[in-house]
Amino acid sequence: MNVYIEMSLSIYDGFLEKCGPDCPEYETLKNGMILRRPKEGHFERMMQIRCDLERAKSLLDLAAQIYPAAVPDIEKAIAAPRDS
Fold first, then answer.
1. Which domain holds residue 70?
2. 19 lies in some domain
3. In whole angstroms, what separates CA 37 from the centre of its chain?
4. How confident is the model at residue 82, as a pLDDT?
5. Which residue blocks in 1-84 are alpha helix, DSSP H?
6. For residue 18, is it within any domain?
7. Positive or negative: CA dihedral 37, 39, 42, 44
């Protein structure tokens, strides 16, 4: 099943900065896509990271250890309905 994690660019940048390039989760984060959505008269830019449920859980575990600010976004994505 696929999980779509969305987070602000500032959270994403901070998480990616703390994650070393030798870490398997780093490649998942690097494959994220920038989304641009209208919000209150302007556009909001978000990062979307698509991965399977197991990788999302590993991202959650990593975030809890090195960048707790990313935890709520990952938890929200894991709890959301997914496609198969």
1. 2-79
2. yes
3. 17
4. 63
5. 9-18, 24-30, 53-66, 71-79
6. yes
7. negative
